[in-house]
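Researcher: Structure prediction, please.
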Amino acid sequence: MSDGSFTFLDESVSPGDLSETGYEENKRWKILTVDDDKNYQSSLTFSLDGLKVSNREVEILTANSATEAAVVLSQHDDISVILLDVVMERDDAGLRLVENIRNVQGNALVRIILLTGQPGFAPRQDVMHQYDINEYWNKSDIDHDILKSVVSANLRSWKSMYDLDQARAGLQMVVDASRKIASKYDTEAFVQVVLKEISELISREKEPCLCVIESREERGNCEERIIAGTLDQHDEKAREVMRRFRDWIDEAHTIKTHVFNKNSSVLYFPIHGENREYFVLVDSYESLTDYHIRLLQVFSENINSGFMQIALVNQLSKLAYQDAELGINNRNWLLRELEIMTEAEISQLELLVVELTDYDSHAISFQQQSLVELVSMVFNQLSEVFKFDPTAVITRVGSDRFAVLYNKQFPLSDDLLVDISSRTYDVNGYLVRSTMTFARIELSQLACFPADQILHIARSLLFSARENKQQVVTYHPLYREELIRDYQILGDLKAAIDNKEFYVALQPKCDLKTGKVVGLESLLRWEKQDNLIPPSIFIPLAERTGLISKLDAIAAELTFQAMKEVNQAGFILPISINATVADLIDPDYIQLLIDLIEEKKISPALVEIEITESQAMESYEEVKPILDDLHKAGFNISIDDFGTGYSSLSHISQLAVDVIKIDISFVRHLQDDPASQQVVDLVMRLAELFDFSVVGEGIETKAQRDALLERGCCVGQGYFYAKPMPTNELLVWLRNNRDIVSE
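Model: Predicted structure follows.
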């Protein structure tokens, strides 16, 4: 039936039938297959042809690269399942597409199934969690029947999550719309209207005495209180009226209906399912006529509907604004509170957002009941931390996140948060370690921002904390400006790649004894409308957004062109170029180097590939065989920023390395910092032990040069000798200093 605002389903419709009602009756499932192997993709399409799930047919969309898939996804926002090849135009093309879907498009519902024909490229378990991937299969293991079963299961999972998401959104809309009509859906305001209307119905020369009693039964005890009326519940007259009406109240409770008398009547309104009743006491100075009694009876039907509506709204509010698993306030509640807070309230509060960093791995390992138990234990721990702040409210804003609103005067130190960030819990007999990351926001700094944007900023802070391996991160006013700046620069950077706004600057490497030039380092530079964008700004941004591989490919092409020009000018000098692990494990990048050597007719012995120590060690197993192959092909290998990472002697000795470069941070403090001196001495001993060459970076003074020479380092670079220069300037510099160019 319908009351004009809500539509209630007939009880004969079972929950299982809901997906087949309404506008979705003829809607087809949408599945996207992304694979550069068109033959395999055709076999997938053939296997799924004619598949029906819940009486709905399947529509199959195809793409043959991550780029094509991004276009398809932008055109179809109702794709349920993606069958995604891991290795396509790039080894990590599939994972990058997943990151785009989850973090850029914000699509958390679509089910993603990774497929690969190369088991060696199987993603690690932590990668599966990080990118929110639902399933992973080797192509050789998934046959016709398994494919249909896997797709059907994921379609049903998607539908369940979609329905839940839509239901939550609908509940919130209903509750918010209802609360705007405060006079009808707020108990206090509602009963005031009731009393006013009853008074007018039976009005005489003198206003009747009216009051509303709420009776609530809890744990076998019945409590009564006056919630509205012309009498104060603490007055003696109110107590006298209650005594006089006692028998009639009990009678109304017993017979479950109204009790009418000539001067005194009790209107009875039960709230079914809540162990609560309302009694409206009507004490008239004149006897009520049958006419007035009938008016009260008719009006009581409206009153009863009003009480039931209020009870319904309260139930809806509980569903929309409370977490079903923990019974505490949820994200919707927090958003509402942040929106209605006054500036004075905001100025007194701080927001702490807490993320369980290993939630996804626990979700795979434990059943739902145990997972809820773990989350509940974390909630109890947070409650213990804030037990001395009576104003603190803990909300659950995601399956793996809490948010705490508390008084900013509460003494909550970062040290305390770090101390509780990693704890072991006993979950149904299993010892489970759970770690937390914290983001702190003083709300007055974001008072002018919408509530949802505040939570987005908090989530971004948590991401930044994880990236930088921090347990606690605090918002500062410049953070959002940095985000906006990065967003603008990212757009400019993408345009710069298309518009070829880059060039390379070459910095000489010199023999520290003779001053002769013995090599060059190629450094990428970005010139935008005659303005140089510092590498310290665009390189980290490119690394975070996956554009660094494109920049490194551009840098390689520009470097080889510069090498050709330098060689043709008569200067045969080796040049080093920077590369990342992502570059080295990309066959296209390696092929690019080989093609450039052949095209420019340059000996690979003149090319030195630099990789940072931290990347080399973090990806040792992947990088080692690639460096071996490059070394065999004639390339030289250099470890950059040496001393800043955590190299294992066994690892560094096994890498095909020719040169290690002492990081600028040690060279800068070499004269007055014993720790820097010890690092440099250690590097020199390693070089002697493993037959490495050593290059000192960032030499700016004669004293730094002499200190390096004293410790046995014979090659270096820095402004003491020459700054990085575009190719044309370098050639002029080399010609003017021809006598110091090594032959």
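Model: Confidence is low (pLDDT under 50) at residues 1-25, 169-184.
Researcher: Thanks, that helps.
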